[in-house]
């Protein structure tokens, strides 16, 4: 839900928005709505509270348009901060449900990707409407001299450059997705290394009170060479190195700028190209084209930084739970070994002279 309020006595413009996550059915998502407010204050000061001296409507409308980029960025960044969880069987069933298309359509207005596209899409749609109004006025000889030309052009340049734009967008998205996969692999390596390293620490701990336990555990677990411990430490270093590389080195900026400039020039000239065939239909045509192509580019920008898209909190909690389970398993093994040793000692005192191994089992 989005609301716009203006104070009649001041020059302050405020946007209020309730941004609710799209997948409310997922239990691991934050059930609370994502709310924020953005305040835009004009530069006029010391104005009287007299209604006759209120800023004109055009100035208020201008302040609204100027505030849209900040508002869209706030929506996008708030969505990037949302906690994500790991999928379970229930979430996968919902993910491939036959009703997913309807659910995705109904959640369009709450999508942060769609909301973040409002500034460029509205800008190009407004520009298309201005071109259409100008051409209509020239054709009808309304308010404009006859020597003003109608803005039209051949569609051949668009037919020749469309494949290039498609390749730019595809490569941009593929490169961003590759970074996302690499970040996921790096964190998987870190979590697996944490679990293995914690297991090794418990196995090779040096403490006089734990020497019997250590001897018993070495009978159940193959001795880990020192080099294996070093490889686990290097596993952490490799994962951290990959994360630092992904965070510090984006996709080449020249490629990002080229794609952005190509999209902007494409949609600035699109109304002129389509005028002869579409006339006033250039306005919805430009809107649909801008919304579609800029959406593809926006998704690539979002997943270029993979870490906000990963369920890092859930992964860290999983590593914590794995270590806790290892500790509980160690305590259980220790309890069982102590019980076996007591039982072996009792048998020895009752007349059995066979020696027993430290884990309580008789020697063969």
In short:
The protein has 364 residues and is mostly helical.
Description:
One of its GO terms (molecular function) is voltage-gated chloride channel activity. It is found in: Membrane. Keywords: Ion transport, Membrane, Transmembrane, Transmembrane helix, Transport. With 364 residues, this protein is mainly alpha-helical. It has a domain at 157-345. Helix content is 64%, strand content 6%. The chain contains 11 helices and 3 strands, in the order βββααααααααααα. The protein has a 3-stranded antiparallel sheet, with helices on one face. A hairpin with a 5-residue loop joins strand 1 (2-6) and strand 2. Mean pLDDT is 71; it is low at 1-49 and 217-231.
N-to-C terminal Cα separation, in Å? 76 Å
Structural class: mainly alpha
Oligomer: single chain
What's the number of helices? 11
Beta strand count = 3
InterPro entries: VCCN1/2, YneE/VCCN1/2-like
GO biological process, one term: regulation of photosynthesis, light reaction
Organism: Arachis duranensis
Keywords: Ion transport, Membrane, Transmembrane, Transmembrane helix, Transport
């Amino acid at each position: 839900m989005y609301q716009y309020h203006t104070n009649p006595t001041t020059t302050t413009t405020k946007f209020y928005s309730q941004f609710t996550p799209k997948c409310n059915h997922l239990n691991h998502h934050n059930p609370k709505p994502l709310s924020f407010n953005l305040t835009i204050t004009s530069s006029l000061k010391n104005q009287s509270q007299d209604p006759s001296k209120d800023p004109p409507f055009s100035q208020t409308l201008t302040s609204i348009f100027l505030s849209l980029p900040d508002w869209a960025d706030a929506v996008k960044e708030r969505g990037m901060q949302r906690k994500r969880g790991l999928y379970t069987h229930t979430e996968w069933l919902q993910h491939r449900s036959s009703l997913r298309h309807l659910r995705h359509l109904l959640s369009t207005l709450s999508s942060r990707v769609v909301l973040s596209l409002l500034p460029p899409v509205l800008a190009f749609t407004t520009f298309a409407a201005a071109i259409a109004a100008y051409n209509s006025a020239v054709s009808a000889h309304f308010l404009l001299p006859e020597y003003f030309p109608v803005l039209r052009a051949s569609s051949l340049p668009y037919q020749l450059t469309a494949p290039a734009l498609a390749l730019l967008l595809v490569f941009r998205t593929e490169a961003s997705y590759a970074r996302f996969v690499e970040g996921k692999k790096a964190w998987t390596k870190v979590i697996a290394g944490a679990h293995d390293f914690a297991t090794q620490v418990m196995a090779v701990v040096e403490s006089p009170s734990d020497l019997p336990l250590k001897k018993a555990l070495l009978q159940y677990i193959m001795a880990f060479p020192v080099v294996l411990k070093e490889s686990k430490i290097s596993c952490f270093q490799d994962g951290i190195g990959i994360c630092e590389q992904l965070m510090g080195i984006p996709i080449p900026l020249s490629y990002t700028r080229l794609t952005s400039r190509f999209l902007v020039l494409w949609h600035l000239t699109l109304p002129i190209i389509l005028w002869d065939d579409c006339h006033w239909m250039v306005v919805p045509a430009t809107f649909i084209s801008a919304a579609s192509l800029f959406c593809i580019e926006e998704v690539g920008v979002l997943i270029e930084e993979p870490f906000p898209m990963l369920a890092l909190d859930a992964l860290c909690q999983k590593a914590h739970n794995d270590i806790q389970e290892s500790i509980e398993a160690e305590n259980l093994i220790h309890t069982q070994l102590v019980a076996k040793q007591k039982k072996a000692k009792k048998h020895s005192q009752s007349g059995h002279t066979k020696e027993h191994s430290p884990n309580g089992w008789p020697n063969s």
